[in-house]
Amino acid sequence: MKNVLIFTKIWPRIFLEYISILKRDVRFFSKFILNKEIIMKKRKKFDDLTIADDFMFCKVMQNEELCKTFLELILSDEIGKIKELSTQKAIINNSESKSVRLDILVTDETGKLFNIEMQVVNQHNLPKRMRYYQSAIDVAGLDKGAFYEDLNDTYIIFVCMFDYFKKGETVYQFENICTKDANLYLQDGVKKIILNVDTVESTKDKDLKAFLKYMKTGVSTSEFTWRLNNMVETIKDKVTARTEYNFVPGYIMDAKYEVREEERKRANKKIAKIEANAKQEIDKASKKAYEAKAETARVKEENSRLKAELEKLKNNS
């Protein structure tokens, strides 16, 4: 009987936990089903856009001279003449893998690739995201039968309005090195850079400081930022840009509303885990209930036998 009571107590708890997970998952997917409507309500008006907004940043960087100056400012080095520049470039390597949409992809005359991304909201996924973007660019850029040596040197650059690592650095630059010898570089041609706009006051480089200030406040204090601001105003005067902003889906312009496959997978894994645990608990409880029922029947049968023997003894006496 005790085991039967245990089963009746466990089952509602398991059931409620399972239902709770399903409800959270439904809310999760509902958020993305209504995504377009939410985005349209939250999006800025076109006239309120600044260089820090994804749409405007991409539009400004379509100007090759401004884009080249920006890259040389961030890298503290000269790059070759820009050979190709594309914005909102989709890379779909196959139907089964997750596709990516790059804000800006630049190729210079030496073959180097520069992927530039504008990031306003911290999604806490930059390292893995940069890794995936790099791999997508590599796979898309290497033809079948080509040699690994043909891979282009690549720079993945994220311009962040926040300090992702909270270390106070203006430019975080990463390369693959040996963990036992810091002077030994893998030399795989990959560099990942995170620009921290949130370090305006502590940045020593005058030109970079002016750029960060413009990104954060919209105030121009250098020749380069004046040029950037003039381009922003020029874009705002263009009817075609205004029309494009109003009609292009918002989720393309702001990564924080992107439906991420990995999140759906995590939700499904949670449900599968709960289902598996629930099944185990139910099986255990069912087994105990069956054993309790069998024990109750055995005890009842034993009581009947003892009672019959007792009656027999009474009759004989």
Topology readout:
Layout: H1 2-33, H2 35-42, H3 54-60, H4 64-75, E1 82-91, E2 100-108, E3 113-119, H5 126-141, E4 154-160, E5 171-174, E6 190-196, H6 206-217, H7 223-236, H8 239-247, H9 250-253, H10 261-316
Parallel strand pairs: 3-4, 4-6
Antiparallel strand pairs: 1-2, 2-3, 5-6
Helix pairs in contact: 1-10
General description of the model:
- The protein has about 325 residues and is an alpha/beta fold.
- The chain has two domains: about 80 residues; about 210 residues.
- About 55% of the residues lie in helices and about 15% in strands.
- It contains ten helices and six strands, in the order ααααβββαβββααααα.
- A six-stranded mixed sheet has the order 1-2-3-4-6-5, sandwiched between helices.
- Helix 1 runs antiparallel to helix 10.
- The protein is elongated, with a radius of gyration of 31 Å.
- The N terminus is likely disordered.
Keywords:
317 residues, alpha/beta, 2 domains, 6-stranded mixed sheet
In what range is the share of β-strand residues? 5-15%
User: In whole angstroms, how far apart are the ends?
Assistant: 36 Å
Low-confidence stretches are 1-7, 28-39, 253-260
- Provide the spatial order of strands within the biggest beta sheet: 1-2-3-4-6-5
Choose one word for the global shape.
elongated
Helix run count: 10
- Give the SSE string: HHHHEEEHEEEHHHHH
Helical residue percent? 40-55%
The chain-level mean pLDDT equals 82
**Main beta sheet: strand number and arrangement?**
6 strands, mixed
Q: What number of domains?
A: 2
Radius of gyration: 31 Å
Return the structural class.
alpha/beta
